[in-house]
Design brief:
By secondary structure, the protein is an alpha/beta fold. Helix content is 37%, strand content 23%. The protein contains 20 helices and 31 strands. The protein has a six-stranded mixed sheet with strand order 3-2-1-4-9-10, with helices on both faces. Strands 11, 12, 13, 16, 23 and 24 form a six-stranded mixed sheet that branches. The chain has a five-stranded antiparallel sheet with strand order 27-26-25-31-28, covered by helices on one side.
């Protein structure tokens, strides 16, 4: 075994995973621990302690620690984060109406300052008096600041001056838009900067918890964080630019999939309890979303993996539509607490309710469904309406049957609201329960799963016949539905990648191809590359899904911890963009990676731009901890022929430096 062991940690919404990885032997040990939202260090230390114990490794053997997380994504999706002050330089109130900026801002304060630059980097005078007046008050009302200047990506000097003033007075974290992106489009750049400022304190806490734990355990190794495009950045950079860690979890799972399978081209599908994430690998790299990552309904300017997320997983609600002549089954998008899992802690209560319902000659509307508190601390239940509070008080830490809770249809909506707030779980039949009935999974209580399936099988269709003949028959139907629905979400992602506007859920041709329906015209479809299944339950579901899609199925042995593997095997990648523009005939302005410079010779301007881009990318990669990075330069020169003369409009030079992280030599 090599002396260098790498520790990968993935903090997900439910579990925190840890793996020890050796560059020669692959995964040495792995462990899981429940993510502890109130204090992330507890979950992190739980997983890391378990992995150290399982491997018998001394802490001195660890030479690199890397973290991937879905916390930033979840926070933006759930609308959490600190209060931020937005400073707009050279923009007006009307600009807030574009790209969803007003919506994202909500009630957070905004200040408009005269100033900014034009496309060639020339300035309009900056006036900071409005800022100076508001700062002493604002410094006590917000947790961070975001600054966006007009054409700051061409000349950032005004953003830098405003940043220095805010830091001197408030000592709070400040994010400038030019540090996050080199793309034009002021309002969306401002939006990205604002979201970044909101996440600073949360990611700061996560990285701080991790660093504190490493210090206590005597692990002296550099710490990296996975970015949304799968590359690694140093913990210090992630604290300044936490927005870059959105979609870090999914990006890490793709990098992990490639490392575990060795495949350059694949469709990767990661099934969890709540969601299925689908993305493609092409030529060994995850495909990035050209437009920027969409998180919580806002399109940002963050380069991230092009991934589609669907509300379909092992814990999805089984919905039965008994109105038609033949009953239909659909799954998700809501997550239920599986009956088999609820009965692990509360066996008597759950099984008691299910057995009582089975003894009744009538099928009840809420058969097989119970409610239980999620165990969030009481202060998070603040602000409930009277109806919500009354219902919440009747639900305790032991599951109670919905039929005893809900006396009117109105109360159903009240219960849904408590579920949305994360205060209550509904327990009910899920695909995980079906797998217990069929003996393909066995980690929880199989008896509760079987009773739940038996209750569901009694439901009658439009012709008055029970929808299934036995619990096993019911379970088979649920698993068949999961296979079909998974095939549809994977297909819809792949069709969208191909630019084809076909919805597989309603296309008759797709339906015939998936069912292999015989006919004079035979429809068939297949993926052009293997399907890689990730997630702890991938081995039970994915062979059938791949077969339905006529694709080879690849399920790595460590499919359940692919994210944590991806966290340590990634590369550091840093890029820098420099522009050359022509304000007037024969004058060439170089902007980006330093002060603006003016040339009268095109070749000299291009030479300066190339050199600036390369050294800025190298410097950024080294600052992020890359060992001997390599630089690649691409040039995009817009110079059309007009009436026989070549006319330069704009040239863009992009340098990308990449390398493996430096590791500690003990």
């Amino acid at each position: 075994m090599s002396d260098h062991l790498l520790l990968g940690i993935d903090t997900g919404g439910t579990y925190t995973d840890a793996v020890l990885f050796s560059e020669t032997d692959g995964v040495v040990a792995r462990a899981k621990s429940l993510t502890t939202r109130h204090d992330l260090a507890v979950g992190i230390s739980g997983a890391v302690e378990a992995v150290l114990e399982a491997s018998g490794t001394p802490v001195t053997a660890i030479s690199l620690v890397s973290l991937s997380t879905t916390l930033a994504t979840n926070a933006l999706v759930e609308g959490q984060g600190g209060r931020a002050g937005l400073v707009m330089i050279g923009f007006g109130p009307d600009d807030l109406k574009r790209d969803g900026l007003q919506e994202a801002l909500g009630s957070d304060p905004v200040i408009f300052l005269p100033g900014g630059h034009n496309v060639h980097g020339s300035e309009t005078l900056l006036d900071m008096s409005a800022l100076d007046e508001a700062l002493p008050r604002l410094a006590n009302e917000v947790s961070s600041f975001a600054i966006a200047g007009y054409f700051a990506v061409r000349n950032p000097s005004h953003e830098q001056r405003v940043r220095d003033r805010i830091r001197a007075v408030s000592h709070l974290p400040v994010t400038c838009s030019h540090e996050l992106t080199s793309k034009l489009g002021g309002p969306r750049r401002a939006l990205t900067t604002l979201l970044n400022a909101r996440l600073v304190s949360m990611i700061d806490r996560l990285i701080g918890s991790c660093e504190d734990f490493l210090k206590v355990r005597g692990i002296e190794a550099p710490m990296m964080v996975v970015r949304g495009d799968g590359a690694l950045i140093s913990a210090a950079e992630a604290r300044l630019r936490p927005i870059e860690t959105i979609l870090s979890g999914p990006a890490a799972s793709l990098v992990g999939a490639r490392s575990l399978t060795g495949l350059d081209d694949a469709v990767v599908s990661d099934i969890g309890g709540t969601t299925t994430d689908v993305a493609t690998l092409a030529e060994g790299r995850p495909r990035l979303d050209e437009e920027g990552a969409v998180v919580g309904g806002f399109r940002t300017m963050v380069e991230a993996v092009a991934m589609r997320t669907f509300g379909l997983g092992g814990d999805s609600e089984v919905r039965i539509d008994d109105r038609g002549l033949a009953a239909g089954i659909a799954l998700g998008p809501r997550r239920f607490l599986p009956l088999s899992l609820a009965a692990v802690e509360h066996e008597a209560a759950v099984i008691g309710v299910l057995e009582k319902q089975l003894r009744s000659p009538h099928v009840g509307r809420y058969d097989g469904k119970l409610a239980v508190r999620t165990g969030l601390p009481d202060h998070l239940a603040a602000g409930l309406t009277n109806q919500q509070q009354a219902l919440y008080e009747r639900i305790g830490s032991v599951p109670v049957a919905l039929e005893n809770l809900l006396t009117s249809t109105l109360q159903r909506a009240t219960l849904d609201r408590l579920v949305e707030r994360g205060l209550v779980h509904i327990c009910g039949l899920t695909p995980s329960d079906a797998m217990h009935v069929l003996g393909r999974q066995g980690q929880w209580n199989g008896e509760a799963a079987r009773l739940g399936a038996e209750l569901a099988a009694r439901i009658k269709d439009g012709q008055g016949r029970p929808i299934a003949s036995s619990p096993e028959d019911m379970a088979e139907k649920v698993v068949a539905r999961l296979t079909r629905q998974s095939a549809e979400v994977i297909l819809s992602s792949c069709l969208a990648e191909d630019g084809a506007a076909i919805d597989p859920a309603v296309s008759l041709a797709v339906d015939r191809a998936l069912k292999r329906t015989p006919g004079i015209v035979r429809f068939s479809l297949a993926l052009d590359r293997p399907l890689v299944g990730l997630g702890a339950s991938a081995p039970v579901y994915y062979p059938d899904i791949a077969e339905m899609l006529s694709a080879p199925s690849v399920i790595p042995a460590d499919a359940g911890v692919a994210n944590a593997v991806g966290a340590v095997v990634g590369q550091i990648r840093a890029s820098a963009t420099v522009f050359v523009t022509v304000p007037e005939e024969g004058i060439f302005i170089v902007n980006g990676a330093g002060e603006s410079a003016r040339f009268i010779d095109e070749e000299k301007a291009f030479g300066e731009a190339r050199q600036r881009a390369e050294s800025a990318a190298l410097e950024a990669a080294q600052r992020n901890g890359a060992e001997s990075p390599v630089v690649m330069l691409t040039e995009d020169i817009a110079a059309p022929e007009i009436e026989g003369n070549r006319k330069l409009i704009e040239a863009r030079f992009v340098a990308v430096a990449s390398g493996r992280p430096r590791i500690a030599h003990h």
